[in-house]
Amino acid sequence: MLTGPNASGKSCYLRQVGLIQLMAQVGSFVPAEAATLAVCDRIFTRVGAVDDLATGQSTFMVEMNETANILNHATPKSLVLLDEIGRGTATFDGLSIAWAVAEHLATEIRARTIFATHYHELNELASILSNVANYQVTVKEMPDQIIFLHQVRPGGADRSYGIEAGRLAGLPTSVIQRARQVMGQIEKHSHIAIGLRKGNASSNSVQERNGKSRRVSEKTADLSQLDIFNS
Ligand SMILES: Nc1ncnc2c1ncn2[C@@H]1O[C@H](COP(=O)(O)OP(=O)(O)O)[C@@H](O)[C@H]1O
Ligand SMILES: [Mg+2]
């Protein structure tokens, strides 16, 4: 699981890993002081968002098609590079899809995967699944700016820095202040991570394996974060 603020270098890191694997397997040098690589059967990537207007597919459908293709064809020997899965839809279903996809890759397919995401909630998976580890692209936070260090270190980002990015880009101060206020409210009342961890992280995967996805969605609806705007 690879987290880090916008523009910190997650996508570049994914591409770099894919290229290094490819270069090594075609017999090339790799641009690294040292690299330990296994041979993989295929490299699967899902990077970037494009509308396929010609065939009438929305950005999100393209994303889901590509993700489905990966989940249906990856093997334990595949290298899977996923960039921001679940970004193309609303927060809760996007996060739910990202969670389920990551869980499936780790527990069912067991492919070597880098899953870049701005959903820092996914860091919870590492405390549930022994073959998941958290890494983050580090930044140095200064009072009025973020300095990108472009280094990947163990650990998970505890937030997404999206509002900081908006501020740096020049969104009006009142909009930034209001966004902070709304985020404060959402954080105060959201129990996504706690709910997933306490509630049914293990029973979820059992149910999914049995194909009873309906019960899973009923359980998910129990989570109190769905109530976030009530106060
Ligand atoms: N290792 C690096 N060294 C220098 N610049 C980098 C590095 N990684 C990323 N960048 C710069 O940061 C920009 C954003 O990187 P990107 O991978 O798109 O970020 P993210 O996917 O985290 O939003 C890149 O276009 C590049 O200019
Ligand atoms: Mg990116």
Radius of gyration: 19 Å
Low-confidence runs: 199-231
Rounded average pLDDT: 81
Number of helices: 9
Helix content: 40-55%
| Count of β-strands | 6
Q: Major sheet: size, sense and barrel closure?
A: 3 strands, mixed
- Topology as a string of helices (H) and strands (E): EHEHEHEHEEHHHHH
Strand order of the largest sheet: 1-5-6
Structural class: alpha/beta
- Fraction in beta strands: 5-15%
Break the fold down into its secondary structure elements and pairings.
Blueprint (H helix, E strand, L loop, with lengths): L1 E2 L6 H16 L17 E4 L12 H15 L5 E5 L7 H19 L2 E5 L8 H4 L6 E8 L2 E10 L7 H8 L3 H17 L2 H7 L2 H9 L3 H10 L9
Parallel strand pairs: 1-5, 2-3, 3-4
Antiparallel strand pairs: 5-6
Adenosine-5'-diphosphate binds next to helix 1.
Task: Report on the architecture of this protein.
The structure is a single chain. The chain is built from nine helices and six strands, in the order βαβαβαβαββααααα. With 231 residues, the protein is α/β, with parallel strands linked by helices. α5 packs antiparallel against α6 (173-189). The chain is globular. The two termini are 33 Å apart. Residues 199-231 have low confidence and may be disordered. Adenosine-5'-diphosphate binds at residues 4, 6-12, 150.
Provide a compact summary of the structure.
The chain is an alpha/beta fold and 231 residues long. It is built from 9 helices and 6 strands, in the order E-H-E-H-E-H-E-H-E-E-H-H-H-H-H.
